[in-house]
Amino acid sequence: MSRESVVAVGAGPANLSLAALAYNQRELAVTVFERALDPAWHPGLMVDGALMQTSFLKDLVSLVDPTNPYSFLAYLKDHRRLYRAVVCGLDRITRQEFQDYLKWAAMRLPNIRFGTAINEIDLDRDSFCVRAKEETVRTKTVVIGVGREPFVPDFARLIRGKNVFHSGAFLSEKRNFSGSSVAVVGGGQSSAEVVSALLRGLHGEPTSITWVSRRPNLFALEDSPFVNEWFFPQHSMWFQRCSREARERFLMGQELAGDGVSASTLREIYQLLYEREVAHKARPGACEIRIDSSVEAMSLDGPGYLLTVRDRVNGDVMHAYADVVILCTGYRSSLPRLLEPLRSRLSFVQNTLGDTELEIRDDFSVVLDGPPGCRLYLQNGARSQYGVADPYLSLLSWRSARILNAILRMERFDCGVMSGAITWSGETLAASRKPSQEMTEKIS
Hints:
Keywords: FAD, Flavoprotein, NADP, Oxidoreductase
Largest sheet: 5 strands, parallel
Helix content: 25-40%
InterPro entries: FAD/NAD-bd_sf, Lys/Orn_oxygenase
Mean pLDDT: 91
Shape: globular
Family: Belongs to the lysine N(6)-hydroxylase/L-ornithine N(5)-oxygenase family.
CATH superfamily of the largest domain: FAD/NAD(P)-binding domain
Distance between the termini: 59 Å
Structural class: alpha/beta
Strand order of the largest sheet: 3-2-1-7-20
Pathway: Siderophore biosynthesis
CATH architecture of the largest domain: 3-Layer(bba) Sandwich
Cofactor: FAD
Number of strands: 20
């Protein structure tokens, strides 16, 4: 039996999920190319003790295929840790353990090629040409899973350097902040983890920390059961059918569900600040938190930088000096560079959040002006089209299963509406209100 060739680019969680779900699909031959030499997942922000904000069951496969041998429970059993994990309780695991799980899965999947960078993808007659440095692979099906790009605000784009960097590089090299003033820009989970690490002296003891957030306060993650139904398949399907205006309005209200700070991290920071005051380690201004404020400009000032910060409520302007500026400003979607040869054949979606996304169909295939039979799929790049859950792990296995169903042209995996408390689908709502035959007879 001939097998359909599928090329997946990027071996992050998205395409690892695809490969894990496809491991026993005899009709498919999936090969995943990854430029890195070995598995890694946000290594630059792997702070000791940092906890996952999602359940361990939101792994590569479990929510679609619970008996799959690449599940997190299978990983625990393989490490002979399952009993201890049960005793410890698995409400939240550390990011370090989840990264170890991803490495475990990646090293066992036979079709992951590390150390192979894909430089570009183009069309040649009736196939894609996937070009690496020393080889070209022809295929009709490509799945892109390279992730989103770190977002650098305009004020910092011309001044980036060793001491002005994105939080994703916080641990990527040896640093020493002793005797330095540090500014942290951003109000989400990454900024809180960076501030917590600075207060604990991870890279030495800074003389001062200035933490600037545009948000009205340092808000905790919205984690109620009903809010978490935003991370269900049916919400994603409903969201995708909404108008662009409705989707943008809804996304604005979902911010804290995806990028709020874990309550435990906020409590830890508050406790660290209190302990510093009690121990008389802090002096006035040693850790200054500026909320509802935005950095409008940054300029060189001697060996450091001068930040212009505006209070968003009353318009007051202050200036803060920093030797080091850490940008905890999140990630944005853009056209992956390797798809540049296809730019003229692609359609794009833009929104008020600043994202430029490829236009995606309901099976996560990209709208492409190309030959029949050539299919391009995108993982983790359609937040404005599929909702707050798209960049995160919650729908990882569901999205991969949808893609595999589309490639196989059959419903190999059940990706339909799951049980939930909230009704999102208009069709489901109409069906629930349809009177039964018995009721109809009574009415008549």
